[in-house]
Design goal:
165 residues; alpha/beta; Rossmann fold; five-stranded parallel sheet; 53% helix
Amino acid sequence: MKVILLGPMGAGKSTLGKILSRELDWPYFDNDHEITTSYGLNEKEVSQLPVEELHALETRYLRDALERPESFISGAAASVIDDPENRELLQSAFSVYLRLPLDKIIERAGSSGVGRQVLQDSGTDILIERFNRRDPLYKSVAHFVLELSDSPNHDAENIKRAILS
């Protein structure tokens, strides 16, 4: 089984992926880390890429990850949901939408690091636009939608139950 954690920046894909990895004894692949190690870039280089190039790398990573034969858990970049071909691919895995209210997304997103370069100017407006556009798309491909709580362990347990049922 391939589990793909979806959601906006700051939703907790990495945190929940690591917890689930321990609980299920499956490997966890962090999207940002995998992009840097797989494609010969360091984090600084990735964080400075033009948005279009970054999104292309994030799509490439998703496609490469889904070709792996073993069970695993991986986060996917928020941008992959924008591509209709990726939405079809995401339905081939057990996709989990980590849904976070807009105010929490704004609070958690920050403005530095991989994928956040576009947020340095008009960050809140961009986050609002992305939420309004992407929320229905995530819901359309997710096998499980989790309204996130304040407890990652509780959230991971809910995801684990959904995976195993």
